Amino acid sequence: MATAGFTPPPYPYDRLGPLLARAEELPGGVVDCSVGTPFDPPPAFVAAAMADPGSARSYPASAGTAAYRGAAAGWLGRRFGAEVPVDQIAACIGTKELVAGLPHWLRLRTPDRDTVLYPAVSYPSYAMGATLAGCRAVPVPVDDQWRLRLDAVDPADVDRALCLWVNSPGNPAGGLDDLAAAASWGRERGVLILSDECYAEFTWAEPPRTILEHGTTGVLAVHSLSKRSNFAGARIGFYAGDAELVAYLAELRKHAGFMAPGPVQAAGALAWADDAHVDEQRQRYRERLDLMVNGLRSAGVDATPPQGSFYLWVPAPGGDAWELAERLAASAGLLVSPGEFYGAAAASHVRIAVVQPLDRLELALERLRTSA
């Protein structure tokens, strides 16, 4: 009898179909705050750069063009004061493919380790990447501020760990981890720290941080233009950190044919070099977060501003996130994500992505107020 192979589970956001249908029934349609897809346009000068045929003619550099990597290095220095050599930076085709693929490539490098540690409340691709690599996906508990509890990691799991994921600011809850402590923890135990920092520009409770401020040995930071520059459809980011690891990954990815398109790299270089458009986007998200927190509170929904990111992490009455998600869809046309998408420990909350413009958010809040 043949052994059953891997069957992909339903993609989390595909499960929202019935709620989407309910929300679309209302006059004015759905206000979709389920997925963190940027609604605002990328800067015009960034989009225009993709029309240059010169960058489309030849195969692009797999590790990234000199211009792209140089712009990323300049941004790390300018934004965080982290001086990272260009040869310790490489491009990726959006960061989701990198997040999902890293466990497989790391296990090729270190086959005697089989465990991926990740926050118990987190982006689902950390656990899925482990599963796709045939690894053990082991969640690490978080505290009441949604920060990793490194003291709670089982020593037996440490001995088998390929890596530990850190996500700060965190998706979905917006917590801010101590990145210096994470780097030290990993170096002391010989565990690679993978720091997903794609929301770094949207840090509210303190200045933006990167783990690279604390050195590059034994750490890898992952950054993206999807959120920072509303460039999610172009699929471009970079990874930076440990010199030996970046060299290994860049060479492996070259063999596998991972190449960010040339026009996208050209546009991405311009995006990393400019901060003005990000300051404008920060202001938009700040206004939307404030509007939603105040509006939800006035409608009797418990909402608290996040320490970082553009998500509201809202506790569901009685701990029933699906019931709250269904109520918001039916009464306000507001589509949100039940917390179980982000781990069993997250099942009592919903995530609201404040990506829609103010007038659409105001429409949802007005519906919610009149339905109460």
What does this structure look like?
With 372 residues, this protein is α/β, with parallel strands linked by helices. It folds into two domains: 12-41 and 277-371, Aspartate Aminotransferase, domain 1 (Alpha-Beta Complex), CATH 3.90.1150; 45-273, Aspartate Aminotransferase, domain 2 (3-Layer(aba) Sandwich), CATH 3.40.640.10. The chain contains 14 helices and twelve strands. The strands form three sheets. A seven-stranded mixed beta sheet has the order 2-8-7-6-5-3-4, sandwiched between helices. α8 (179-189) links the parallel β5 (161-167) and β6 (192-196). α4 packs parallel to α11 (262-272) and α12 runs parallel beside α14 (358-371). It starts with 16 loop residues before the first helix and ends with a helix. The model has no long low-confidence stretch (mean pLDDT 96).
List keywords for this structure.
alpha/beta, 14% strand, Aspartate Aminotransferase, domain 2, 3-stranded antiparallel β-sheet, 2 domains
